Amino acid sequence: MEGSIVLFGPPGAGKGTQASVIVEMTGKPQVSTGDMLRSAVSMETDLGKEAKTFMEAGKLVPDSIIIGLIEKRLTEEDASDGVLFDGFPRTIPQAEALSRITLVSTVISIEVPDDDIVDRIVGRRMDPETGEIYHVSFNPAPAEIVGRLVQRKDDTEETVRSRLEAYHDQTKPLGDWYSSLGILVTIDGSGSIEEVGKAVSEAINQK
Ligand code: ADP
Ligand code: ADP
Fold first, then answer.
1. Going by fewer Cβ within 10 Å, which terminus of the chain is more open, N or C?
2. What are the tens digits of pLDDT across the range 38-96?
3. 51-82: b or e for each residue (b if 16 or more CB lie within 10 Å)?
4. Which atom belonging to ligand 2 lies closest to the Cα atom of 88?
5. Which domains does the chain show, CATH number per domain?
6. 4-18: per-residue pLDDT in tens?
7. SS3 content of the chain, % helix, strand, coil (to 5)
8. % pLDDT > 90, the chain
9. 100 noted as active-site residue
10. How many Cβ atoms are within 10 Å of 18's Cβ, its own excluded?
11. Which residues, other chains included, contact 67 with Cβ-Cβ below 8 Å and sequence gap of 6+?
């Protein structure tokens, strides 16, 4: 497929979980602004220090920081045939900036009701060694690695409310924007991981 793909949806919708399906099908590298920011925070770079307060408060990091990160990432060689964006763009200005630097051919929107989002986020755990995402009830990790799993600092019930607010205010309107461009494919994200994965692969196959 020509161009880049965007995985769109609220926090905790399953974008990171489903990204591997698309990476495997298309060979495009996954570009997650959340992962890039978390890595900058843990390396204590200037950018990481600036982003940290926003992330911990469940607010969006300023567009200028995000757009700078993406511009740099897209100059890397593996991005030349397009990438899979996960968690970007999240505002209209980010989408406008993106449209000036690369072609977005498909936007896959994973829809999940807010009530399910809270359960998904609070139970999310990550394996720091592999980056694999688990859930305490919906996708439990094998017993031998449970001890090393970590929980993100912003994955609390309190922070998730402000992240959902940011999503509804700043990110959701982007879905309408992409819909008006005729490139939005909407998927019901409330089924099991396997069911959603099937719908995602059908969406990619139809393109
Ligand atoms: P996002 O990248 O959109 O923030 P994740 O892929 O990290 O979301 O998923 C959030 C949490 O929900 C994780 O703990 C994941 O294991 C779990 N999850 C993902 N998809 C589903 C699903 N279809 N059903 C139940 N839980 C899911
Ligand atoms: P989730 O899918 O669970 O919301 P992410 O890993 O995508 O988690 O994002 C974590 C946090 O990083 C966000 O709450 C926000 O503070 C910041 N962030 C990630 N991507 C962006 C972006 N494109 N624009 C602004 N802030 C972002």
1. C
2. 999 999 999 999 999 999 999 999 999 999 999 999 999 999 999 999 999 999 999 99
3. bbebbeebebbebebbbebbeebbeeeebeeb
4. 23
5. 4-28+81-205 (3.40.50.300)
6. 999 999 999 999 999
7. 55, 15, 30
8. 98
9. no
10. 24
11. 93, 94, 97
Q: What is the pLDDT of residue 2?
A: 87
Q: Kindly report each contact of residues 125-129 with a partner whose C-beta sits within 8 Å and lies 24 or more positions away, as own/partner.
A: 125/149, 125/150, 125/151, 126/150, 126/151, 126/152
Tell me if 38 CB under 6 Å of ligand 1: no
d(CA 25, ligand 1 centre) in Å: 20
Q: What confidence score (pLDDT) does residue 207 get?
A: 78
Annotation says 38 is catalytic? no
Ligand 1 binding pocket mutation candidate from 133, 150, 167 (most atoms within 8 A of CB): 133
The angle, 0 to 180 degrees and rounded to 10, between the axes of the packed helices 63-73 and 92-101 is 20
Query: Region 135-146: what's the mean pLDDT?
Result: 98
11 in contact with ligand 2, CB cutoff 6 A: yes
Q: In this structure, are residues 151 and 125 in contact, taking their beta carbons and an 8 Å threshold?
A: yes
CA angle, residues 205, 131, 140, in degrees to nearest 5: 85
Nearest Cα to Cα of residue 104 among 89, 87, 115, 91: 89
Mutate to test the pocket of ligand 1, among 6, 138, 194 (most ligand atoms within 8 A of CB): 138
Tens digits of residue pLDDT in 104-131: 999 999 999 999 999 999 999 999 999 9
For residue 9, give the ligand 2 atom closest to its CA. Answer: 2
